[in-house]
Amino acid sequence: MDKVNLAEKLSLFSDHWNPRIVGELNGQHIKLAKFKGPFVWHHHEHEDELFLVVQGTLKIEFRDKTLELQEGEFLIVPKGVEHRPVAEEEVSVLLFEPASTLNTGNEQNRLTRPSLESI
Amino acid sequence: MDKVNLAEKLSLFSDHWNPRIVGELNGQHIKLAKFKGPFVWHHHEHEDELFLVVQGTLKIEFRDKTLELQEGEFLIVPKGVEHRPVAEEEVSVLLFEPASTLNTGNEQNRLTRPSLESI
């Protein structure tokens, strides 16, 4: 059992759309990721998903609106809701979601990361 | 579905050791709390608990050591592990834990908050 420093963990990787696991509790993962550019439209059949912006600005597009999150803001995307994260500039994000969650949800493509590294 | 600004939510209350619910996903709660002074020694029988410092410094005492968390640092306290949060100065903390989690765990006393307000 030791503490986790978000900035320190974020300094360990630089690639985009490849979340790292930095904590696990109650069957849930705490992940850190860097996003840049547009992701893919997807939804998660069974998992609600939380995005907390650690640094930068993150847009999350929905079919009927777009929400913009700044540092210190989070959004919970309920299961089943189609969304697409978009980052005009690089953004660092903390994710909180069940260990079973696949990053691209129902869409399997080149951005899908079936197994994530723990750092 | 709307975003949550941590600073804005924290401005809505000033009492200590009385967590507010600011989000719910997958049977887990996202809570915000302000701590000041020493809490009580306790453990959670069934729940791991995450403390993420939003502002200030938080010490978490264990029977064999003390960890000090600064802003941007988190700690997961596994179920069953006795701990006591202590804040020499006021600290703002984000908690991730199952909706079933009672703040004082196995100890029922004047600090116990059986039902929490959502803000």
Explain what this protein looks like in three dimensions.
The structure is a homodimer. With about 120 residues, chain A is mainly beta. Chain A has one helix and eight strands, in the order βαβββββββ. Chain A has a single domain (about 5-100), classed as Jelly Rolls (Sandwich), CATH 2.60.120. The first copy, chain A, has one helix spanning about 5-10, and strands spanning about 5, 20-25, 30-40, 50-55, 60, 65-70, 75, 85-100. In chain A, strands 2, 3, 4, 5, 6, 7 and 8 form a seven-stranded antiparallel β-sheet that branches. The longest helix of chain A is centred in the first third of the chain and has 5 residues, at about 5-10. Chain A is globular. The interface between A and B is medium-sized, with 32 and 32 residues. β1 (about 5) of chain A pairs antiparallel with β7 of chain B, so a sheet runs across the interface.
Distance between the termini of chain A: 14 Å
Gross geometry of chain A = globular
Biggest chain pair contact, residues each?
A: A-B, 32 and 32 residues
* Residues in helix, % of chain A: under 10%
Number of strands of chain A: 8
Structurally, the number of domains of chain A stands at 1
Predict the CATH topology of chain A.
Jelly Rolls
Count of helical stretches of chain A: 1
State mean pLDDT of chain A (0 to 100 scale): 94
Major sheet characteristics of chain A = 7 strands, antiparallel
Radius of gyration of chain A, whole Å: 13 Å
Question: What string gives the helices and strands of chain A in order?
Answer: EHEEEEEEE
Q: What CATH architecture of chain A do you see?
A: Sandwich
Strand content of chain A: over 45%
Quaternary state, please?
Answer: homodimer
- Low confidence ranges of chain A: none
Going by helix content, strand content and strand pairing, the class of chain A is mainly beta
User: Mind telling me the CATH superfamily name of chain A?
Assistant: Jelly Rolls
